[in-house]
Amino acid sequence: NEVLDVLKKYNVKATFFVAGKHVNWYPKPIIRAKEEGHEIGNHTFNHPDISNLSQQQLEDEIVKCEKIIKEVVGVKPTLFRPPYGSYNQKTLGQIASKYKYKIVLWTTVDARDWQNPKAYKIADTIINNVKNGDIVLLHDYATNNTVEALDILIPKMIEKGYKFVTVSEMIENS
Questions:
Q1: Of the candidates 24, 53, 138, 150, which lies 20 to 30 Å from 144 by C-alpha distance?
Q2: pLDDT digits (tens, 9 = 90+) for 59-90
Q3: Contact 156, 12 (CB under 8 A)
């Protein structure tokens, strides 16, 4: 909710790649994100390293996550991001095609907020390295440092002329 509060404060839309188990445990923030115009993507149900899964195990992870997202927000996700950015291209490609998913990673900017660095470090990493069209990786389970970093970087990025869009909006406009 804290992340959503900051995004709402600046009227910024984002894409959230969510693990299905988290949607199952905490449906209210996902419902709120969808209602406020954010995009919800599939990030597997249990967040495993999918490069080591069989095709059937991977398919089960994706389908189980898709099912809970559809139950909670009423929409089938169209984007998939593999946990850790790790995957087997052949296996994932076949499944993505079968379930009509676009596979999305991130570009050069990973502020590694999951390691809980200070807010100014997260913000500086993004502000000093982002380029037009980048997909920035942050985590929605957000420590206070991530929330504070958003409150620092969003106004600075807007001041520099950047516009925040969902991944699907970026794909449509490219």
A1: 24
A2: 999 999 999 999 999 999 999 999 888 877 77
A3: no
- Residues 41 and 70 sit within 8 Å (Cβ to Cβ): no
Q: How many CB atoms lie within 10 A of CB 127?
A: 18
Cβ atoms 104, 80 nearer than 8 A? yes
- What is the pTM (predicted TM-score) of this model? 0.90
Mean pLDDT within 118-131: 89
94 confidence band (pLDDT: 50, 70, 90):
confident
Q: For the chain, what is the largest distance between any 2 Cα atoms, rounded to a whole number of angstroms?
A: 47
Identify which of 100, 105, 102, 93 has the alpha carbon closest to the alpha carbon of residue 55.
93
Pairwise CA distance, residues 107 & 137, whole Å = 8
Question: Alpha-carbon distance 150 to 174, whole Å?
Answer: 25
N-terminal to C-terminal alpha carbon distance within the chain: 30
